Amino acid sequence: MDCYTANWNPLGDSAFYRKYELYSMDWDLKEELRDCLVAAAPYGGPIALLRNPWRKEKPASARPVLEIYSASGVPLASLLWKSGPVVSLGWSAEEELLCVQEDGVVLVYGLHGDFRRHFSMGNEVLQNRVLDARIFHTEFGSGVAILTGAHRFTLSANVGDLKLRRMPEVPGLQSAPSCWTTVCQDRVAHILLAVGPDLYLPRPFCLVFPLALPQTPPGLAPGVSSFLQMAVSFTYRHLALFTDTGYIWMGTASLKEKLCEFNCNIRAPPKQMVWCSRPRSKERAVVVAWERRLMVVGDAPESIQFVLDEDSYLVPELDGVRVFSRSTHEFLHEVPVASEEIFKIASMAPGALLLEAQKEYEKESQKADEYLREIQELGQLPQAVQQCIEAAGHEHWPDMQKSLLRAASFGKCFLDRFPPDSFVRMCQDLRVLNAIRDYHIGIPLTYSQYPQVLVLRRLYPLAIQICEYLRLPEVQGVSRILAHWACYKVQQKDVSDEDVARAINQKLGDTPGVSYSDIAARAYGCGRTELAIKLLEYEPRSGEQVPLLLKMKRSKLALSKAIESGDTDLVFTVLLHLKNELNRGDFFMTLRNQPMALSLYRQFCKHQELETLKDLYNQDDNHQELGSFHIRASYAAEERIEGRVAALQTAADAFYKAKNEFAAKATEDQMRLLRLQRRLEDELGGQFLDLSLHDTVTTLILSGQNKRAEQLARDFRIPDKRLWWLKLTALADLEDWEELEKFSKSKKSPIGYLPFVEICMKQHNKYEAKKYASRVGPEQKVKALLLVGDVAQAADVAIEHRNEAEMSLVLSHCTGSTDGATADKIQRARAQAQKK
């Protein structure tokens, strides 16, 4: 095991990277790779070399030669180039070779050198010539990006459906950018270029800023005057920048987040820089190549360095980087977790112990039993078997694959119910992979790549058959392939929308893992809007239907779908989109036909757009709600008393129109109260505005304006009981006991005299409370006496009333030390009552 990890190189504390040989190349190159235009297809695809391109140091009579090899160096095709000067080569997803000429014409050749077709990148490119070109891949197909002699960019995102886009001008670009690349954001391909210390991302559909605006990567080290190289990851999610200060900045392709930065202490521009990452891995690394040095950098203070004995070329892959030269073809990648746990030095992972146990078993050593018992005691034997199976899939050499699978098979023998499916499937997968990796076939696919390559080559029936043979889960296998097939199907413009939609639905049905909205988005991208709408009818998730319908400007249909879903957030999204899209009248008419949407929009307007809410009520002649609106507005928006009264008058008129006389009268009373409060403030000073009627009366009493308070009570018909309570509370708060006594004797109290006792005791004035206790009626006499603390007299009254409840109440207030005689007296009265 120690020997096996000799080519492992740590990058930080959490990841190892290894580089191993795929093939020994026997292609007998007559020139160095640096003297050729080179293009290598991903997913272990073929390599194209255009020898002796138009270089000044070569004699003019030397004709270029285009040669195509497999990844193992086996010749596939060779032809003399008889067309114009070529600027760039690249492979499409269908493994067609695209040759971009200086005049903007792109020639397309097959895998075996057969000419397929050609197309032009436009008259502007023809007039200004091609300075540089890139072939890139997106979910829509393979695209071509051109930099012209006028320093303008033109691109097509799909060479199968050629639509040229001229990118916005970059201000101040008088010469070729120091570096540039293509990125894909929001399903649209863009150009990212560097001019001095600034980055530009021209957007072709931006009408507000017709010129591209400079951007700066977040957290970039100071002192950068230019970017020398840039690389976008295989999935277009991440970006790497090499600066003239020797720093490598890594972050998201949107330039919104920085991942890390590394100082490589080399200021010379690299020949190539590519990303090296593994699917579902949190590690991010970039591979940088100079003439004789290869460096792997990531979020770690150190880097991994390799010496290159000869000129090499890097090919980014889904899970690593291929490195080929005149003599060798190697693969550099992050060591998978399963392999790392099994093979790292002194590993005690269950998979490592199981592999050792199997080796000792073959030696007939008793150590095999010791290792096996150790795993079983920890209950990790199923995990050990699974680790060995997974690690076998990531190993390139058959001998190591067999060793790991033998260990897994050995461990399975000691498990009663371990499902054999994963073991059998891995054996099948590795048979397929080892067969196509053979030198004569030369497709060095990894375990992560090979299901994908058949789809990219549009070998859908074969891909489905392999998935079924290997018994892959439907979501991971057949569903993904069918989704790719459907996206390809919508591009067949010679078939009607009805036929395409029906064929896709018949083939896909309710297949799990397939999103009809993604297929519809592809149809819309191809200009087939009606087909996209038909496909969306099969999408069961409204949350996926609505955004695409809005993008297609089918807002009313989107509103209907959102309402059917019952998702209020979705409805709000459509409503706000409709509000910006339609004029005011059409928008309101649309809402009137959708009661649920209208109700939700009213709720939104109550918090965000009050004037719009008023217009809605006016249009619907909803006078009741309009009156309520004006009442809220009178307090929320109006500070002057005149404006507030005017708003309340409008509200009262609306309530009369709604035939709600109670609300109208209440509103008019509020108007009278506001006017009176303003007059009181002018005459008496103090704060009266916005007080309630009761608080106004109380304030007047506290101010000594008893007559005004009584007049106000008469004007607004405050009941006597309520007025007595207000006056009682106010006088007690003032502690004006003399005035309170006069008030109590002014006439018979409508609320009785127990409240007087309670209020006095609340103010801790027992002396005043006793005055009123004697005037309390018989039914509340006991309670009043208890409130003032006269337990003995309360007992006499309770005995006199012969009321059991009152006697129990008095007893509850008796204490053993001071009221023992009173308690005995009540008990004797109870006993006498029971005898009778």
TrEMBL record:
It comes from the Eukaryota. Residues 514-832 form the Vps16 C-terminal domain. Pfam families: Vps16_C, Vps16_N. The keyword Protein transport applies. Residues 354-381 form a coiled coil. Keywords: Coiled coil, Endosome, Lysosome, Membrane, Protein transport, Transport. Transmembrane segments: none annotated. One of its GO terms (biological process) is vacuole fusion, non-autophagic. GO terms for cellular component: CORVET complex; early endosome; endosome; HOPS complex; late endosome membrane; lysosomal membrane; recycling endosome. It is a peripheral membrane protein. Plays a role in vesicle-mediated protein trafficking to lysosomal compartments including the endocytic membrane transport and autophagic pathways. Believed to act as a core component of the putative HOPS and CORVET endosomal tethering complexes. Belongs to the VPS16 family. Core component of at least two putative endosomal tethering complexes, the homotypic fusion and vacuole protein sorting (HOPS) complex and the class C core vacuole/endosome tethering (CORVET) complex. Their common core is composed of the class C Vps proteins VPS11, VPS16, VPS18 and VPS33A, which in HOPS further associates with VPS39 and VPS41 and in CORVET with VPS8 and TGFBRAP1. Interacts with RAB5C. Interacts with STX17, MON1B. Associates with adapter protein complex 3 (AP-3) and clathrin:AP-3 complexes. This is Vacuolar protein sorting-associated protein 16 homolog. The gene is VPS16.
